Every structure is written in structure tokens, then in C-alpha cells.
Backbone:
DNA sequence: CGGAACATACCGGCCGGTCGGTATGGGCTC
DNA sequence: GAGCCCATACCGACCGGCCGGTATGTTCCG
């Protein structure tokens, strides 16, 4: 089976399209990117695209959905370990920073391009995002209930603050400075000291 | 000078267009919004639009630019007061949360639609954003230098963390819960405790 | 040989931007 | 203060290109 050297394997088109789309959407945004742009970057044709996807929307939805699955899986695994509150929150913060660095483009696309998704298909993704947020809130409420953290006016607002602090890294993170782990540990120490019981 | 009741005043079109654009861009994004959408919402015509603006880009640029000016002004005023580090940082955090609540749509547009601006016109806006970030970094470095805050691996990374924590509110803030001031004070107390000297 | 995986040509609509024209009102001249 | 003039502020019909999506043909593999 002598396949010409650079020729793509038959059947690999789908993932190539998704990866190309991630690049394009990250660099130029969803609406600004034409289907033609994506298929050219993926080195396939428009026919191949519409064979694998119904419409352009599906592509964005698929990227969002898979991304949320990755995040949720990591988060559920962490919760399953049943760590004491301080370690749990510290690891959670560290994990999110690492995830932000790893999935930087997907984060950017998720937060910048979600207004381009129709309301209905976005529901499914939003449910997963809500679940994600709930896990962070629970980690904090758990710590407060166990006396590991001081009481705060609102565990939800604190949780959003932590998520923001950490997720914001998608805006500025570059591999040249501190490593994701170092950044995560730094943020965790600030937060843990900040909410330590009096 | 009896002007007919509902008739818009001559010359008021420009601001009406800008406000309509902020609404549209916030709700549906820049590319998804057509110039036709904007002028219909502003109750003017396409001719009026292209009289006041050269192209669609100008609109987005104008929104970004004016927004950054508002933020920078507030920040410069705060710095001019020369407060001691702890008060300065606390007020800074509180101010940004209040600004986030006040300019929620502009924040969203700034962070979600900036990939739709060509690189060159965006330079001017980016310079202002950089200046803004620099002021936050300085507030932290100043506090560390004066011994009011403990040393951290990177003042820049900490500054970005604080900005993220606070600016993230544009995603979730709703007037029904805690007030912006309360949120700001809560975040400030966590951060100040978190970076207090050992 | 059948169906999955593509390729290619093409269409119809929308959208940014243009262009020739009109109305309004403030200032200047006499 | 009457007439004029012209800049500013708008109007609205129109165009050309691009882009999402389709329809139909072709190739490869089991």
C-alpha cells in the first residue's frame, strides 16, 4: 500500500478540520473565518467539510463541547479524591491554571465566540459550564462548613472571583515566564491565606 | 422653535448610533451585527451612519477607545491621591469592580470583539490597556517595596490575577445580588489578607 | 458492487460601502 | 432684516463580492 509521502490518510479529515478551525477561530474569530479558510488550512476541500459536518455552527459547538468535557473530567476526578478542603482548593486552582495554559486557544474561543452560537445548541454546553462552576462553589462551601475557610458574604461570588483570577490567564499566559504550576501555586497560596479562618 | 414631538434633534445621530452599536455588539457580536441592524436600532439611516463614520471598524474602535479612556481616567485619579499601599490597592480593586458593573457591556465588547479590529487601529487602544495594567502592577510593586505586602514570585502575575478576579465580573454580575461595592470590598479583603507580610 | 469519503462547480442572499441628491440653518453681505 | 450661500447633516437606491450551503459527480475500500 504505497501511499504518496505527504498524502493525508483517508478518514483523518475530521480531526484535521477541527484543529484547523481552532487555529482559525483563535486567530481571527468565528464569523471572520470562512469555511473556505478552514478547509484550506486543513488541506481538505469544502466537500469533505460538509460530509463531516452539517453546518458551520456544528464546528463551533463541537469545539466547545469537547473542551468542556475535558475540563469537567479533570474536575470530577479531583473531587473523587475527597481531599481535605485546603488541599482540594489548592489543587483545584493549580489544575485550572494548568488547563488554561494547555487549552489556551479553546478557552479564548469559548469565551470570545460563544455569542456566535445559537441559543438552543448552546444550552447543552452551558449546562456543563454550570456544572463546572458548581464544583468550584462546592469546594468552597465545603471548606467553610468544615471551618477550614472563614465565612464570606457569598461563596458564589468568591468562587467566581477565583475562577476569574485563574481563567484570566488565557489572556496573557506565555510559556516564557513562570510555569503554569508555579502560577497556580502562587495564586493558591494567596487565596488560601486570604480566606484562612481568623 | 417648535420641534415636532418625537423627532430626534438634529446632530444627535452620532451618539444614538454609538449606543445602538453597543447594544447590538453586546447581544450578538460585531460581525453578526450588520450596519443595517445598528441604524435601525438607532432609528437613523445608513446614510447618516456613513456620514459620521468612515467604516464599520471605526465604530468598534470608537467604543473601545472611549471605554479605555474612562477606565484610565479613574485609575490616574486614584494614583494621584498617593494613598498608602493597602488603602490604594483596596480602593483600586473596589473601583474596578464598580467600573465592571457600570460598563459591563463595554467590557464584554472589549474582550470578546477585539479580534475583529484590524491590528493597526487596535495599537492605540492596546497602548492604553497596557498603561492600565502598568498602573496595577505599580500599585503592587509599590506595596512590596514599602513592606506592606509580602514578596511574590512575580508582581506582574499577581497583578494579572487580581485584574482577572475583578474584571471577570463582566461575565456574571447581575444587579440583584451583592452590590459592586460589597463585591469589591470582599475581594479586596481576601487579596490583602492573602498578600499580607508574614 | 455498495456505500462511505471525498471532490468540484455553482447558486442565491446578504452586507459593507458608494454615490448622487436633498434639507436645514447659521452667518455674511448690503 | 432680507436675501443668499454654503457647510453640515442626512437620505435611500444601488452594486459587487464573498460566503454558507447544495447538488452532483468520482474515487477508494471492504
Residues:
Amino acid at each position: 500500500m504505497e501511499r504518496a509521502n505527504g498524502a493525508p490518510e483517508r478518514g483523518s479529515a475530521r480531526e484535521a478540520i477541527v484543529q484547523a478551525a481552532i487555529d482559525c477561530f483563535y486567530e481571527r474569530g468565528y464569523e471572520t473565518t470562512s469555511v473556505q479558510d478552514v478547509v484550506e488550512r486543513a488541506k481538505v476541500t469544502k466537500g469533505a467539510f460538509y460530509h463531516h459536518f452539517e453546518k458551520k455552527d456544528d464546528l463551533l459547538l463541537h469545539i466547545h463541547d469537547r473542551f468542556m468535557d475535558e475540563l469537567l473530567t479533570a474536575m470530577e476526578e479531583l473531587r473523587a479524591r475527597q481531599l481535605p478542603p485546603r488541599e482540594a482548593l489548592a489543587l483545584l486552582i493549580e489544575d485550572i491554571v494548568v488547563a488554561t495554559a494547555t487549552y489556551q486557544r479553546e478557552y479564548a474561543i469559548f469565551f470570545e465566540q460563544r455569542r456566535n452560537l445559537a441559543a438552543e445548541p448552546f444550552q447543552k454546553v452551558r449546562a456543563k459550564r454550570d456544572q463546572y462552576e458548581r464544583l468550584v462553589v462546592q469546594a468552597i462551601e465545603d471548606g467553610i462548613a468544615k471551618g477550614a475557610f472563614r465565612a464570606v458574604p457569598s461563596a458564589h461570588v468568591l468562587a467566581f472571583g477565583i475562577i476569574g483570577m485563574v481563567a484570566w490567564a488565557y489572556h496573557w499566559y506565555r510559556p516564557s515566564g513562570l510555569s503554569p504550576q508555579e502560577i497556580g501555586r502562587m495564586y493558591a497560596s494567596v487565596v488560601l491565606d486570604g480566606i484562612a479562618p481568623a
Remarks:
- The domain at 55-194 of chain B is CATH 1.10.357.10 (Tetracycline Repressor; domain 2).
